[in-house]
Specification:
CATH superfamily of the largest domain: Glycogen Phosphorylase B
Strand content: 15-25%
Number of strands: 15
CATH architecture of the largest domain: 3-Layer(aba) Sandwich
Helix content: 25-40%
Bound molecules: alpha-D-glucopyranose
Number of domains: 2
Shape: elongated
Length: 471
């Protein structure tokens, strides 16, 4: 069997550049696929300012026609931990240093250039021609459009997969920019507003669509989650799959985690309590084994339901709990959390910063891990929490619903309302300190969230896609 070649394109990939969950996936999935047989994945990223220091060599260059002129595209290559990594450079990439800019025009310029350059590179670089181009989110979606247009002209056989990590982020309006690159958008079945944005165009053009959990794949077909694209997505239902993300179980292992006061495993679960004692001391809170510690590590966004957690805890002041919030985000929500800390100085800590090591200590110390997301395509924190013995208390949506078993590995609630969250807290508190709690903890810790299963599902998808079009 010939080796299938996949070029995997994303805006970010850990550990080289990471802003959010997309970076975790783009760092881990190519590695997990390369561990399987009959497939080779190479990764392609924009050469962001943060990547200029990587020891990469110029490989190849070409021009993308732009208005009456052209932009030069330079491709760099480097090998990183066994993975071939290509970096795309050019004027629009250098015009914007950070991975994502607060200026939509800069982002549009960078990612339209990047997407078109990825497709051209895939078609022109003869030493390694991919069979499949795997795209992720709006930043790379237009490569699917360009591939489809080329194929309709009989110029390419490349197949495209587009993974949806977060549907509402459809990208800035790029109609004029596409015209400047001499790309004309054909008639699609998209609503006309959507034809101006990269993600919907990619959803129209890609051969196969993947949502990052089976539940999210179903949810985006409904008005509540579809953001106006639900009817269109329904028309593509046959090509839409749900594949759950995995967790890097080596990077997140409570038995070997150097950030923890007391590493532990299923065999040494009693050591876990030392982590709670240590974290509370670190944060200047009193340690009481009878009082459950709630943890939340998150972007502090409305999507993540931070406001629901704050409100539900205010309504539960008669119950014994302590809570630690870690993360940055929306200014108003951050202010809300600071206010909480002032209201409950001996119970609450609002740690409004990004701190990976502290996050690990929160996972290892918390009894319950809060994730009251309004929507959650997949979510990673709940998987880390379970592996670290913190029971997730989460809204039953998207990937949370697919990874947490209510009453067995965590607690789920239905409505995005503080009252529903409060009721779930009461259910959890009723079990806290009883033998059932430890049974749940042990079950949660032994769940298998490793990447290998998801990688195999992606490989099956690529294989079917390529076969379909060969015969
Ligand atoms: C986005 C989603 C999150 C998902 C991640 C990786 O950040 O909000 O739910 O886990 O992408 O797919």
């Amino acid at each position: 069997m010939a080796t299938l070649r996949v070029l995997f394109a994303a805006a970010e990939a850990a550990p080289w550049v990471k802003v959010g969950g997309l970076g975790d996936v783009a760092g881990a999935l190519p590695k997990a696929l390369n561990a399987l047989e009959h497939v080779e994945v190479r990764l392609i990223l924009p050469r962001h300012a943060a990547l200029e220091k990587l020891d990469a060599l110029p490989l190849f260059s070409f021009y993308l026609p732009y208005q009456e002129d052209a932009y030069e595209v330079q491709i760099f290559e480097t090998r990183q931990a066994g993975l071939t990594l290509y970096l795309v450079d050019g004027v629009p990439v250098r015009a914007s240093g950070p991975v994502y800019s607060s200026d939509a025009r800069l982002d549009a310029g960078k990612y339209v250039f990047f997407s078109l350059a990825v497709l051209e590179f895939a078609l022109r670089w003869e030493e390694w021609t991919p069979d499949v181009l795997h795209l992720n989110d709006w930043h790379t979606a237009l490569a699917a459009l360009a591939a489809r247009l080329r194929r309709e002209r009989g110029e390419a056989r490349l197949r495209t997969v587009l993974t949806i990590h977060n549907l509402p982020f459809i990208g800035p309006a790029i109609g004029e920019l596409l015209a400047a690159y001499h790309v004309s958008v054909p008639a699609t079945r998209l609503p006309s507003w959507a034809e101006q944005h990269p993600l919907p165009l990619g959803l129209w053009a890609a051969d196969v669509l993947v949502a990052v959990s089976p539940s999210y794949a179903r949810e985006i077909l409904t008005p509540e989650y579809g953001g106006g694209l639900e009817d269109f997505l329904r028309s593509r239902m046959g090509d839409l799959h749900g594949i759950l993300n995995g967790l890097d179980t080596e990077a997140f292992n409570p038995a070997t985690d150097a950030a923890l006061a007391a590493p532990f495993s299923l065999e040494t679960l009693s050591h876990r309590l030392e982590n709670k004692r240590a974290l509370l001391a670190e944060l200047g809170l009193k340690f009481d084994p009878e009082v459950p510690l709630l943890g939340m590590v998150s972007r502090m966004d409305y999507q993540k339901g931070v406001d629901l957690a704050v409100e539900a805890l205010r309504w539960s002041r008669e119950l014994p709990w302590q809570a630690v919030f870690l993360g940055v985000g929306d200014g108003r929500l951050e202010a809300e959390l600071r206010k909480m800390e002032q209201e409950f100085p001996d119970r609450v800590r609002a740690l409004l910063r990004f701190d990976g090591a502290l996050a690990r200590r929160v996972y290892a110390a918390s009894d319950l891990f809060l994730m009251p997301s309004r929507y959650e395509p997949c979510g990673l924190a709940q998987m880390i929490a379970m592996r670290y013995g913190a029971l997730p208390l989460a809204r039953a949506t998207g990937g949370l619903k697919d990874t947490i078993e209510d009453g067995r590995s965590g607690f789920l609630f239905q409505e995005a309302e503080p009252l529903a969250l409060k009721q779930a807290l009461e259910r959890a508190f009723a079990l806290y300190g009883r033998p059932e709690w430890e049974t749940m903890q042990r079950y949660a810790m032994s769940r298998d969230f490793s990447w290998s299963r998801s990688a195999q599902e992606y490989l099956n998808l690529y294989t079917r896609l390529v076969r379909q079009h060969v015969s």
